[in-house]
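Before relying on records like the one below, remember that each one covers exactly one chain. Contacts with other chains, cofactors or solvent are not represented anywhere in the record.
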Amino acid sequence: MTTDAPRRLRVLAAMSGGVDSAVAAARAAEAGHDVTGVHLALSENPKSFRTGARGCCTIEDSHDARRAADVIGIPFYVWDLAERFREDVVEDFFAEYEAGRTPNPCLRCNEKIKFAALLDKALALGFDAVCTGHYATIVERPDGGRELHRASDMAKDQSYVLGVLDDRQLAHAMFPLGDTLTTKAEIREEAARRGLFVAKKPDSHDICFIADGDTQGFLAKRLGRAEGDIVDESGAKVGTHEGAYGFTIGQRKGLRIGTPAPDGKPRYVLDISPVDNTVTVGPAESLDVTALTAVRPRWCGAAPTGPGTYTAQLRAHGGETEVTAEPVDGGLRVTFTEPVRGVAPGQAIVLYDGTRVVGSATIATTDRAHAVA
């Protein structure tokens, strides 16, 4: 009795220059696929995109990716997607903060760049799949469809930032690291065994296009400084700021409030109003959110047709919370079983059914347990 050998695919491996994408490309090649490496040049001035371990878009990174491809023994190219990245990710980042919302540029990059612009170009060139170093799992259904699931190791799971992928994109996605129950140290050891120079390279972190990690300073250079009031829940002025865009819901540090709260407890950002350039602060309990509406839903499979019970994740490194969710008027209405805090418009909410990613949407409004004046 014989069994069919796994299909040999033409795979385009997105190689950032880091250890995860290098090991993912190596595993895809070892599995017998015809792999080509590609590094995405996303910066119009690549020298500005790295400080220490920050970023993933420099000339140094492209050289590291090329060396890894040489060791693996696969062809390698650099594709310039800087203009598309600027339009779809960086400009969106500015626009969202200017509107008083808190965006997730990594999620937007996956949606617009890695699994849209890159995937479209890959398919046009005859590739079958795009491979990345994300920690997530794709499960094949009996009917031939594909589901996106959490990684086997929850500590490394990155399904939250992949929750924007639709059926078509999932059909051409490959995540070789997702079903591996290994620590990051073991991934690095594997890279060293394979002779990959990037085995000891630090992970990138924060936002790749903000070289020094100073988000407020980055925004101020583009949006300008605009002094406004910081007020408490009663509307009384308690401080000033240099731009409402520099704050996010739930923020505690960096408020520079001279007037202490009556109860002596810390205050948090409760609301950001770009219209009158006002930031409202108050106690932690005023951050409690009981429900929200979200827009631009994207479903990893068929869209729900009615209310359902799910778990939801609200931040890339956040935990899960139980919710009831229902598609409403082209958007999504979500009610929390227990109040949650620090929910900011502009962030993504990703719904799960067990480990399966159901879909995601962008938070538009929230219902507070205690109304903000």
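The longest strand covers residues 356-368.
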